[in-house]
Amino acid sequence: KQWYQRRVAITAGNAPEDNPDQAWDTEELKRSQLYGSNNRRPSCVMKATSSRERTCDISTNDTSDISTSDIMDTRAPIKEKEERATILGQVHFDLALYHYMGRFEEDKTADNKSALFHLKTAADCGLSIAEFTLACLHLNIYHDELRELELNDNLVSESEGIMYMEKAAKHGTITAILNVAQAYHLGLYGVEENWVKAEKYYRKYTECSSAGSDMDTHEPTYQILAKIAEMFQHGGHGLNKDPLKSGYLFTEAAETAMSAMNGRLANKWFMLAEEVWAECEE
Questions:
Q1: Which among 261, 260, 256, 220 is positioned nearest to 273, based on CA atoms?
Q2: What are the C-alpha distances in Å from 220 to residues 153, 210, 239, 254, 265?
Q3: Measured in whole angstroms, how far is the alpha carbon of residue 258 from the centre of its chain?
Q4: DSSP label of 257
């Protein structure tokens, strides 16, 4: 407490007389005053998790359920608050990897129980790779990290898996975006078909991926554009039928496929565009 009061005094310009030559970085002191207060513990998982949740509420101006101390905490830039949460998440994710590799065991055997604990903690802190990995474990989807790690049958939950997959998608994991879009499009993993949400995630995927890219498990952009066009062509599951928009999307998919040197699909979608536009004329 004395150390903290001393720093606050120096920040206010009241340098202690016992050591007047001691120089302090003003910005560092302000950060210490903000992050070192009794209301915050940057190393606390619960604080880091709630910080991520409050960031979303504050960014949308919805402060109805936020306390006065939480609102005062908005003095910290949103980006810095997110970074603190994800840094703690990265620490837990690295610990999960070490336990998975048996680094803390004398016989070098994997400690899967500890690995799962730190993986879930990292996901709860908002680390996208941890969110995606945990979602894949619940949904039995192939993933690169912690490949041989498995959940017990009594711990597997599709609802929890899709929850973490959506979180990873919102944090920009491109494969997660595609998985969530397909789940809402086809009704996978116990999710009710919702083409409005599927169209939103497919759109986000096309914005994040490069045209014609088929790296890893990513689908080419023109394939995604064609799927959106088909949804608007038929309509349903909350999405209104729109032949005009469908035709434009088929044309965009065809042009993108042509630029990716896939003439066969381009010709197919140009023809489909003409067909759906004919429905508009009728």
A1: 256
A2: 35, 8, 23, 12, 12
A3: 32
A4: H
Distance CA 171, CA 135 (A): 14
pLDDT at 184: 97
Contacts of 38 (CB under 8 A, 6+ apart): none
Contacts of 41 (CB under 8 A, 6+ apart): 47
What distance in Å separates the CA atoms of residue 103 and residue 118, rounded to the nearest whole number? 14
One DSSP character per residue, 14-33 reads ---TT-TT----HHHHHHHH
pTM: 0.72
Give me the amino acid identity at 68: T
Q: Is the dihedral of CA 256, 259, 260, 266 positive or negative?
A: positive
CA count, 13 A, side-chain hemisphere, 189: 25
Minimal CA–CA distance to 5: which of 23, 25, 29, 27? Answer: 29
In the structure encoding, which two tokens stand for residue 9, read together? Answer: 């005094």
Q: Which of 152, 42, 137 is nearest to 89 (CA)?
A: 42
For residues 236 and 196, is the Cβ–Cβ distance under 8 A? no
Cβ-proximal residues to 20 (8 Å cutoff; 6+ apart), any chain: none
Find the angle CA(75)-CA(77)-CA(81) to the nearest 5 degrees. Answer: 105
- pLDDT, position 208: 86
CA 214 to chain centre: 21
Please say whether the beta carbons of 104 and 98 come within 8 A: yes
Residues of the chain with pLDDT under 70: 1-85, 210-217, 281-282
What would the two tokens of residue 49 be? 């998790």
Q: What one-letter code names the amino acid at 158?
A: E
